[in-house]
Amino acid sequence: MANSWRRERWDSLRLLTPNWQSRLPGFRYDGADPDGYMDVREVIAFISRYADSSVAPVRTHTVVTSVTLRDGRYRVATTQDEFDCRAVVLASGACNVPTVPSLRAALPASIASITPFDYHGPSSLPDGGLLVVGASATGVQLADEIRRSGRRVTLSVGEHVRLPRIYRGHDVLWWMDASGVWNQRYDEVDDLSRARRLPSPQLVGTPERTTLDLNALDTSGVEIVGRLSAVRDGRALFSGGLRNQFALADLKMNRLLDMFDEWARTQEQELGSSERFEPTRVPAATRLSLDLRSGEIQSVVWATGFRPDYGWLHVPVLDEKGHLRHDGGVVDAPGLYALGLPLLRRRKSSFIFGAEDDARDVIAHLARHLDSRS
Question: What is the residue extent of each domain of the chain?
Answer without folding.
Answer: 3-96+307-373, 99-306
